[in-house]
Design goal:
Belongs to the peptidase U62 family. The chain contains nine helices and 17 strands. The strands form three sheets. It has a six-stranded antiparallel beta sheet with strand order 3-2-1-4-5-6. Strands 7-12-13-14-17 form a five-stranded mixed beta barrel. A five-stranded mixed beta sheet has the order 10-9-8-11-16, covered by helices on one side.
């Protein structure tokens, strides 16, 4: 298979040199594969990447850090039959690349056979490598980034007299390029950008202080929220948390705001991922074809979204991605597998080596305000703390903060509580998903209402 490293049909080349850099990385990858074959490897794969970025942080009107980064790396994996060895380097000199191949081969010769080891099947390789409008470099220098961060923080500090302090504001921009190639003849190249503006502010003083913030992130700088709007939103959130109360222990409906709702989907993904399944360390072992969510719930993987955070024609093994359901009518349709975990389970890869691509959670309700009104009485969660999730049993217990809802209205802030349940029951008890999708993640979900959870407070 002879894929072009990159299609530029939909992208007029500008003054940036990303295409040329990708061609260089592709040439290095091909040379390394040739060396692996010459060393006797029966199969081999190479990943090559470059990334550069700029990050600035300011606090209370002063610059704290300015960081410019440039990273690169080459990773080589070889197979001698079903023995595997890997080595990596950041040095592109001839002697370093040669030593990297030698190290990978030496490791492989001293490892045991693994019946699941090897490249993904050649027939599954992507035959077309496309871009999905993911390359939008930001012509941003340090002075401009500092000005944006200062404006963001100042807008937040000016927005509310109760904002007494700041944890700072930040601006970041990064651009990455990568090539994956293997001895099946596959070579695929990708380039992507991501930009972020964030602010964290402190309201009140002394023991009554409350901290909160906001951020915006996007592939193209034009899609970011305005810096001043980010600061004002951070101020509003921090001030709204002043004078929080606890709650009496009991069972109530819990509405996970969209910015934390995706964590529930993340726990679900962990439970249906290959590593947990073949180790039988998941509460969803042997669950394909069973009802996990309510019968209206759908979860779709969409790897071809334009400007999607995880859009790609191929996974990290070169396997062609495809749009397909994870959950349909509440029933789990498949697991999330790369070729290694698939072989361990006696299944076929789902083109998810390296993780899932963009996920859409189907909404069955209205916007955020209608969800609050519909809940009537319960807890709105806007922040989760701790890692109290047992992936084997599904037991769930995390610190939380948010707001109490009474008669369909947000009434007062809540802090110092724990919410608990079991993920398997929680997923089945989802009553509503809103249309208020948080666009800052590849998991595209609105707020999620769980019918009943234990809230431990006073």
């Amino acid at each position: 298979m002879n894929n072009a490293p990159l299609s530029t049909t939909d992208h007029a080349l500008s003054s940036d040199d990303s295409v040329a850099r990708l061609e260089v990385l592709g040439g290095i990858a091909r040379q390394l594969l040739d060396r692996c074959r010459a060393a006797g490897a029966t199969q081999a794969e190479v990943s090559a990447s470059q990334e550069h970025g700029l990050n600035v942080n300011v606090r209370m009107g002063s610059v704290e850090t300015v960081e410019s980064t440039r990273d690169r790396g080459i990773a080589v994996t070889v197979y001698f039959g079903q023995r595997k060895g890997s080595a990596s380097t950041a040095d592109l000199r001839e002697e370093s690349l040669s030593a990297t191949v030698e190290q990978a081969c030496a490791i492989a010769r001293h490892t045991e056979d693994d019946e699941a080891a090897g490249l993904a099947d050649a027939a599954l390789m992507a035959r077309e490598v496309r871009e999905f409008d993911g390359w939008h470099p930001w012509a941003l220098d340090a002075d401009q980034a500092i000005d944006i961060a200062l404006a963001c923080e100042q807008a937040g500090r000016d927005a509310d007299a109760r904002i007494e302090n700041s944890d700072g504001a930040s601006v970041g921009s990064s651009a990455s390029m990568s090539v994956y190639a293997n001895s099946h003849g596959f070579i695929g190249a990708e380039r992507s950008t991501q930009h972020t503006i964030g602010c964290a502010l402190i309201a009140g003083r002394g023991d009554a202080m409350q901290r909160d913030g906001w951020y915006t992130t996007a592939i193209a700088a034009d899609d970011l929220e305005a810096a001043a709007a980010v600061g004002r939103h951070a101020a509003e959130r921090a001030a709204s948390r002043l004078q929080p109360r606890s709650l009496p222990t009991g069972e109530v409906p819990v509405l996970f705001h969209s910015e934390v709702a995706r964590s529930l989907i993340g726990h679900f993904l962990g439970a249906i991922s290959g590593g947990a399944l073949y180790r039988r360390a998941s509460f969803l072992v042997d669950s394909v074809g069973t009802q996990v969510f309510p019968d209206w719930f759908d979860l779709q993987e969409r790897p071809f979204l334009m400007r999607g955070f995880r859009s790609s024609s191929f996974d990290s093994e070169g396997v062609a991605t495809r749009e397909s359901p994870l959950v349909s009518a509440g029933v789990l349709q498949r697991y999330v597998l790369g070729s290694y975990s698939a072989r361990k389970l006696g299944l076929q890869t789902t083109a998810n080596a390296g993780g899932v691509h963009n996920l859409d959670v189907k909404a069955n309700a209205g916007d955020f305000d209608s969800l609050v009104r519909g809940m009537g009485r319960g807890l709105l969660v806007t922040e989760l703390m701790g890692q109290g999730v047992n992936a084997v049993t599904g037991d769930y217990s995390r610190g939380a903060a948010g707001f109490w809802v009474e008669d369909g209205q947000i009434t007062f802030p809540v802090d110092g509580i724990t919410i608990a349940g079991n993920l398997k029951k929680m997923l089945g008890a989802i009553e509503a998903v809103g249309t208020d999708v948080d666009p800052r993640s590849h998991i595209r979900s609105g707020s999620i209402l769980v019918g009943k959870m234990t809230v431990a407070g006073e």
